[in-house]
Each structure stands twice: as structure tokens, then as C-alpha cells.
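User: Good morning. I'm curious how adenosine-5'-triphosphate would be positioned relative to this chain. Could you predict the structure with it bound?
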Amino acid sequence: MTLEPYATEIEKVVQKQDSSIEFGLTNEQVQKRIKEFGGNEILEGNPKSRWRILLDQFIDPIILILGLATFFTFLFSPDLLETIATLTVIILTVSIGFVMELQGIRSLEALRKMGATECLVLRDGKIKMIPSSSLVPGDIILVDTGDMVSADARLITVKNLSIKEASLTGESTAVEKDVKPLPQNIPLAERSNMVFKGTSVIQGSAKAIVTNTGLDTQLGKIQKISSTIEEPRTPLEKKLSQLSKWLIWLTLIFAILIFFTGYLRGMDIITILKTAIALAVAAIPEGLPIVATIALARGMLKLSKRQIIIKKMEAVETLGATNIICTDKTGTLTEDKMQVHTLAFEGNMLNAIQNEEHHFFEQLLQKKYFNKLIMASVLCNNVVLDNANKRGDSIELALIEFVEKLKLDSKKIKAVNPEQLEIPFNTNSKLMVTLNKNESNGSTIYVKGAFEGLVKYCNTIIKANKIEKFTNKTEWFELVNNLASQGLRVLGFAYKDIDAHSPKEDLLSQLTFIGIIGFLDPARKDVKPTIKAYKDAGIKVVMLTGDHPGTAKKIAEEVGLLTTGSNIEAVIHSENIKIEEELDTDNKERLLNASVFARVTPEQKLKIISFYQKNNNIVGMFGDGINDIPALRKADIGIAMGLRGTQAAREAADIILKNDRFTAMQLAINQGRAIFDHIRQFVVYLLSCNLAEVVSVGLVALLNLPAPLLPLQILFLNLVTDIFPALALGMGKGEVDIMNRPPRKADEPIMTPQLWSSTIIYGLCITAAVVGITAYAHFTLKASPSEINNMAFFTLVLAQLLNVFNMSKSEVSFLNNEVIKNPWVWGAIVLSIFITVGAYYITPIANALHLINLSTQQFGWVLVFALGSLALSQIIKRSGGTF
Ligand code: ATP
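Assistant: Good morning! Here's the predicted structure, ligand included:
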């Protein structure tokens, strides 16, 4: 029986995988294994095959109606030319749908790849960052706090490793891991010497050897079972296809009505049938959902070029409605380039930056207890020192850098004082504790963390080379407040020597306070203008930080969240808020108006977000740590930083800012708003064009005017004049004032009552031109039925094309707006006219469309009526009748 990796000694696992713990796999081995095992990928849902996409085009209602129409028309009046023409239209429609859907899917795949995770691997003796998808069995991987595990792997070494495996086992508490072999056949949840793909490292770090990748992982097996799930559609797509369905039903009812009234009036059955079919074809905005998908996917691709990865399509829609952005402080609003700035030790305050060149530190180093501060800085510290590229928390990196400036060797200090126990930094206690062996055969506890959290455990203090009773705590509180008010991030340090026999349970008591260090982390220069831009766009920015209120206030002032010199009351201290309780109006208002919350725990972040959401806000949230994950998920838009954020945070987020720039969100919101505007524009455009077609055909039939439009002509219109301008509208840049207006209301539908009335007005203006020219040609010009039909047809083509210019906002001038400046719109118009002229001159197409030669004067009237329709809608628009 072959033993599973968890039941095998690690050396044997490594041997079996033909790998090496120190060297990893060689490049050659990797290439071979990629061929053998494939990439380490599990695709979400089954990607639609090309055949399936093609087949789906045929079960589209428009195609079904067309198929039936061709069949019946052929049955009643066999006309070969018309049948071929209709079949051509079917093929064309199917091809356009197929190409567009394929393009949409391709863009989404490209985006998915961009959002893919990376991992640290040892190959050819070197540690490298590689895309997780290229891991192979036998690879030696390194994981750290906040990482997502990229493949199933057997642990080689661990340090305080605990992993959240909820995605596999459903168990929400983290499990501790070690390396001991286990009995064969134990359940998944008990395999404590393994880590699994898709789980997240809550604490600690580890080295492991990959045993399974891709679909062979535990996650892959689950996915295989549920792989029938298809890519879910976004709410927007759902709304649009609902709209289309609703229109289909409406049209069918309308078509049946026309059919029966015609029949009762004793009209020719073939003509009525054709008219009814024409109507049905006219009304269905078949391009709507796919044009929307393309606009969304294109917007996402455009943003990805600016380093903004939108992971879920629906996020684009939500972006336009976001009105609160919650952000942390360090690294988002500040540079995250920590530097030791001030030291307070034994009652001395020392500016580390100014004193860098002096010999002041040399004097300090002479002091008996100064080395306690150094030891606490190095030992109570998780920075990885083994290679040239030091990795770790920025505040801890700053401590190591400081120690190195004093020409002390951190590595050596760590080697001489091996760690026996560690309580890692915790965002609730805001402390980190280690227990290390010391040189006098005992152990020392080192603690560092938020001053108010630490000081309550200290009863003695280092003072004038002696250990004294800690009586002047208030003075220290003042000092901490003072440093914080300068914008410094403050850490306190303490220690306690214990002998080998002391009980280890009571680590945090009777500590000796060493001193404090203030870190400088300047505000990012580009944040202030961005916050101003958000304000102009009706978006409120809220800082939620775990830091000291004083530090929070100073940074908030620097970035413009608070006005300089504002009262410290403006910062809400987490101790003073009870969000879960029913709040009275005053407190509710206070919370809604606040911009800065300090000493906030991850649980409180979650509560604050829920509070905002309950009060009808759409919340965006920046988060980077593993503790931020619930809040990132809870927020309407979770935003993670690509460089600084943990993998788990990036996984949970909807948006990843690859360049870590707070300012990038401004661009994303701008784009989100623009895309939504465009979707509205082309929905209004397509619906008003379709409405014009329906009402024109219906009215001409009901009024018993001659020569109503034919189904093929309407199909031609839908293919040529509808789709191209609609696509072009989706390519626009967005109005210039887009970031100067408030966000869209969350519950606002795509089609507001105002947009519906605009649609109806534009549709009726086009109808007026078509029915108008029909009546004018019939009664005044006394034209033949074919001429009347052709004039109505060309008027409809032109009026629909011109209708695109109605899509800009009524507040902007007709000659200077987003639509008129969009070169794609002009391209679409020229292309559509070119195709129409082609159809007019190419005899077989002209015959199929029943096009005859018209005189220049007749074309002149077409132009007059089409322009008339644009003029009419513009007059109504400019007098406040439409949007
Ligand atoms: P920000 O909003 O600035 O990003 P945060 O919400 O991430 O801050 P935390 O990292 O939870 O805040 O830090 C809160 C407090 O915990 C800090 O003010 C500091 O006193 C303390 N602290 C931070 N990092 C460490 C650490 N590595 N070890 C010990 N204490 C720490």
C-alpha cells in the first residue's frame, strides 16, 4: 500500500517527488512536470465551449422568430430571393452574436489571468516569485502570514503556523499545523502536517513540498464535482435580459393585435403576417445584453492597463454608486516607509534622524539597560533575515534598520537568543510577545506594542541605570500623546527576565517598561488632491485605523480629511462607540459625519461598514491584512493593494490596485460611472430605435397607409443602424463633469422613469418622421407604394443614425459633448451609411430589400424628414423634456 504524504516521513516524500529541500526542483524538472501534470489551475465553472456559444445564438428568440417567419413566408408565398436573404440575415446575426460573445469571454479570461496569484518557490537553489498557476508537484514553497496556499503540500518546517481551512472543511477557526507524520486514512480536517490549496495562512510561516496541483488538489476535487456551475451573470446583465424578455412579450401581444385587426379588416393574410413578423423583429433589442457585456469587459480591460484589476464584472456597476470609501492609514494614506524618528528611554528624548551623524548613540550604547531596547527590537520581531532581501512588517523592518545603523548584528542577536515561544502581533491586544533564551541560562520575555495596551502590565521602569517602581505613567501617556500628535506611530517596549523554572503561563505581568519609539511615516503627497476629488464627486472618505487617535488626527489633517487644528473629538476612539446597539439620532449623526476612527479592531471595521450599509450607503473598503478579509467581503467593493496587500486580501477583494495607489480608485470610480452612463445611453438608444420601428410599422398598418416596412428591411436596420452606434456609444470617454456630480443611488434602476420618457420621446420623434414622410409621399407627392416604402425606409435609417446625437446630456451643448466628440460614433455612422449605400447599389441585396431607384428630390425629402426628427427631439430635449 502506498502511504499518503501525510502518513510518510518528510524525507521520503521529498525523495519520492525527486526534489531537494535545499535546492528545490531544477528548471528541467519543472518543464517536464508541467507537461506531465498541466498547470496548477482550477477554472471557476466550466468555460463555455465555442460550439456551445454558437448553439446559444440559435436559441435566441430573434433567430427563432426569424426561422419561423422564413418557414411560413416560404410556405405561403415561395419567394427564393427573400428566403435566401432572410437566411443570410440569420447567419449574419448569429455570426455577430458569436464574435461578440467570444470577444467578451476572451477579455474576461485575460482579466482573470491578470488577477491571478503569485507564490514564493525554491527552484534551482533560488527563492523566486512565480505565478501560482505554474507550480508543479515536487516544488518547495514558502508561505507566510496572509498568504493563500497555492497547492496541496506536505509541511517541511513550520513556525507558529495556523491556517484557516474554512474553504475546504467549513471550519471557521484556524488550525495549528506541525510536521509530524500521521496515521494513514485520517480525515482531511485532521491532516495537520499538510496545507491545502485555497486556504489562508492566518499566522506564522512554513516551508512545504507540493504534492498535488490543479484539479488533483482537494479544492480541485470539490470543484470537479460542482463544475457544471456556469459563470454567473452580473445583476446588470440579468436586468438587461429581463428587459429584453419583457419587450418580447409586449411585442408578441402587439403583433397578435395587429394580425387580428388586419384580419378583421379583411387585409391580405400574407401582408398582415409579414407586418406582424416585422413588428416582432423590430421590437427585440437583441444586441442589448451582449453590447452591455462588451462595454463592461472593455472598461475592465482599459482599467487593467492602468494597473487596476477588477475581478468581478458587477464591481464596475457598483463603482458608479459608491458613496463612502473606508481606508486604513498605513500604506494607503501614508508612504509606509517607516523610519525610527524618536526614542524615549530613561527619560531622554532623542531624535534619531537628527542625531544620526552624532555620537549620541555611542553614549546610549554604554548605558546598562539600553541593550534591552535593542534586544526587544530584534527579538520581538518577525522580519526574515536569511537572505539579502529582508521581508516583513514595515515597522519591524524599521527597527532592524535602526539596529543596523548602530552597527549591531541582528542575525547574531537572534542566534544567541533563540526563540522559545511567540505570541504574534494581534490587532485586538495590539501587542507582540516573545520568550527567548538569554545568555545567563534563563529566559527573557520581550513585549512590544501599543503603549496603552502594554503599560497596564508594567510595574517597574528603567530609570537612571536602575529598575524602579513605575509611578509616573501619566507623564508617559502625555509623552505618547505628544509624539502621536506629531503624526508618529508609537510603540512601547517592555521585558522581564525569568529563570528556567518560572511558570510560563503568566507571561504578561510585572513587566519592566523600557521606553518608546516613535516612527515617522509621512502622508503620501497625492492623497490630498484625491480626497478633494472624491469630495467633489460626492464620495466621503473615512479613515479606519488601529493606530493612536493622535497619529490618526495628524495624518488626517495632512491629507485633508480633517481641517488643521481641529478638535481631537473629531476622531472617534473605538472605545467610545457601540455600533451594534440601537443608536439615538445624535449618535447616529455623529457616526455618519465622522471621518476618522482610531484604535479600531477588525471586528469594529466590519460593524462600521454594516452600519453605513444599513443607512443606505454603498461602501468601498481598502484592506490589506488577513484580518481585513471579513470587512473586504462585507463591503460592496473590497479593494486590496497589489504589492502590499496579503494574497488572502487580494483573493477576497473585488478590485486589486496593482500599483498600491490610493489615487487609482479615483480612476476606477470615474470609469465605473462612465460605463454605467454608456450602458444607459445605448439602452435608451436601442430601445428608442426599436420603439420607432414598432410604432412606425404598427401606425402605418393601423392607419391603413400604403407600403409598411418589410421584415427584411427592419432586420437590416437592426443589424446596421442599431448595433454599430450602440457599440460606439460604449467606447466613449465619459462626460467631463462625471466626477463633479453625486454618485448614482444604489437602488436606481437602469431605466429611470425619466429615461423611459426620453426613450419614448426619441422613439416618437423618429416615428413622426417615418409616418410623416409616408403620409407626405402618399398624399402630396403621390408617390408609388414602392417609392413610399423606400422613402420611409431610408428616413428610418438616417433618423436612427442621427438619434445617437440625442444621447448626450441635455445640460451640455449639442456641439460640444461626449457623443459628438467620440470618433467611434462617427466611424459607426460612416460605416452604416456605407453599408446602406452598398445595399442600394448591389442589385441582389437591393432586390432582397425591395429597394428601387429614388430621385434626388425624393432623397432630399428623406434628409429633411430625418433631420427634422433630430431637430424635433433636440427642441424637446433643450426645453427640458428629456434627460
Ligand atoms: P493603519 O490604519 O495605520 O494601517 P492598522 O489598523 O493596521 O493601522 P495595526 O497594525 O493594527 O493598525 O496597529 C495598531 C497598533 O498596534 C499600532 O498603533 C501599534 O501601536 C501596534 N503595532 C502595530 N504593528 C505592531 C507590531 N508589529 N508589533 C507590535 N505592535 C504593533
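The radius of gyration is 35 Å. Residues 328-330, 393, 395-396, 425, 427, 430, 432, 448-450, 489, 491, 545-548 surround adenosine-5'-triphosphate (CB under 6 Å).
Let me know if you'd like a different ligand tried.
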